[in-house]
Amino acid sequence: MESLGVLLTNPMDSYLETELSRRCNLFRLWESSPEKRNDFLRTFAGEIRAIVPSGASAVDGDLIDGLPALEIIASFGVGFDKIDIDKCREKGIRVTNTPGVLTDDVADLAIGLAICTMRRICDADRFARSGSWKINNNYPLASKVSDKVDFFRTLCQI
């Protein structure tokens, strides 16, 4: 059985890359210098059936047109904004992504930033690191987070 040709646009987690390499023939775009990328792509165009871009990598119409065997773009990110979806529709190329993969992390960060802001943690850190406490040790009090429990319950339910 022929191995699936997969174009990786950026380095990825070593475990994932190792697992993919066991099942697929990987083409690592970043290993080709920018001046030689078109030659690299032309050389392997007929073998590449899938692209795995990161969320930061663009997959434009020219790249899609240059890969006649392309069947799927499996974005390793949450959005499609750097993928030419219209061109993919026109050519019948499937496009996937990883929706929701960052939802919990973004929620955690939002809670952390809210606490940091309400308790003025960053301001207090700068105050302490700058040595200002030696001159004026009267740092202003900040809002209590424990009084805002209902706010955080509501935020977590959104």
From TrEMBL:
SUPFAM superfamilies: Formate/glycerate dehydrogenase catalytic domain-like (SSF52283). It holds the Pfam family 2-Hacid_dh. Keywords: NAD, Oxidoreductase. Residues 7-110 form the D-isomer specific 2-hydroxyacid dehydrogenase catalytic domain. One of its GO terms (cellular component) is cytosol. It comes from the Eukaryota. GO terms for molecular function: glyoxylate reductase (NADPH) activity; hydroxypyruvate reductase [NAD(P)H] activity; NAD binding. Transmembrane segments: none annotated. PANTHER family: 2-HYDROXYACID DEHYDROGENASE YGL185C-RELATED (PTHR10996:SF178), 2-HYDROXYACID DEHYDROGENASE-RELATED (PTHR10996). This is Glyoxylate/hydroxypyruvate reductase A HPR2. It comes from Platanthera zijinensis. The gene is HPR2.
